[in-house]
Amino acid sequence: MTKQVAIITGGTSGIGLATAQKFVQEGYEVVAASVDSAEKVAAAKAQIGEKRFNVVSCNVADRAAVAETVAAVVKQYGRIDVLANVAGILAKEVDLTDADLDNVERTIQINLMGTIYMAQAVARVMKEQGSGTIVNVGSIDGVMANHESIAYHASKGGVHMFTKALARELSPFGIRVVCVAPGWVDTGMVPDKARAYGSKLLMKGRLITTAELAGAIWLMTLPEAAAINGSVVMADDGYAEFKGLGILDL
After folding, report:
1. Less packed terminus of the chain by CB within 10 Å, N or C?
2. Is 147 exposed, middle or buried (0-12, 13-18, 19+ CB in 10 A)?
3. Per DSSP, which regions of 110-174 are E strands?
4. CA–CA separation, 16 vs 180, rounded Å?
5. Closest by alpha carbon to 233, among 193, 177, 187, 154?
6. Residue pLDDT, tens place only, 151-163
7. Nearest to 9 by CA among 47, 65, 52
8. Per residue in 227-236, pLDDT tens?
């Protein structure tokens, strides 16, 4: 049986690490693209503890690095079955009128353009093999406006529309493109001051775990999800639907 291969961007921390771990558990050869420190990479490898988990240094905002990474994966494994575009950053929470536009551009470059760069390189491979699934990680901030920065909203809204447009383009080639949009996930990106507040907005009364989000990403790649294409799948524990009126308010 041909081994299935997945590239997970941001795959050595947070949602990306949990996603990499899930795909390894399901038998995939996993390549994590990461810009994390050597210490974080070593910790990620120790946590997963499988030879099928490989880490490459790759800044998704660098087109040349992305092309090199994808070419190396194809050379080693001969195929790419799944791309999970997880890598992303938060922008500084300031009003746009006070914002450092370099920070705005960096946020959009990593969150949106990084997703586009990686998807383009992988889509070329998937078109040749006639199959594959691309899962982009969006956000509730791509659906509704809240206190987050303008830059983060713009980047994730772009990811949502990019997903829809790319799905339409790639569908004739047997490739699905889906976006999973999380709410408040318990990662290192959530400031401590926001943790208690965020918990009140979700139906379970707590933040979503990285493993739960990884499970949602995994589900989108299954044959049973074949009818889901070009969709933004909300993995926000009801936040967007109930406008933050969680179970604690009932």
Report:
1. N
2. exposed
3. 132-137
4. 13
5. 177
6. 999 999 999 999 9
7. 65
8. 999 999 999 9
d(CA 40, CA 60): 18
The pTM is what? Answer: 0.94
Q: Are 153 and 145 in contact (CB under 8 A)?
A: yes
Element (H, E) at 53: strand 53-57
Distance between CA atoms of residues 44 and 117, nearest Å: 25
* Residue numbers annotated as active site: 152
Rounded to an integer, what distance in angstroms lies between the CA atom of residue 184 and that of residue 56? Answer: 28
Q: Which of 123, 217, 232, 227 is nearest to 170 (CA)?
A: 123
Task: Confirm if 60 and 87 have CB atoms less than 8 A apart.
Answer: yes
Amino acid at position 76, single letter: Q
Distance CA 236, CA 203 (A): 9
Q: Which residue has the tokens 């586009």?
A: 116
User: For 137-183, how does the pLDDT look when each residue is reduced to its tens digit (9 = 90+)?
Assistant: 999 999 998 877 899 999 999 999 999 999 999 999 999 999 999 99
- How far is the C-alpha of 196 from the C-alpha of 185, rounded, in Å? 12
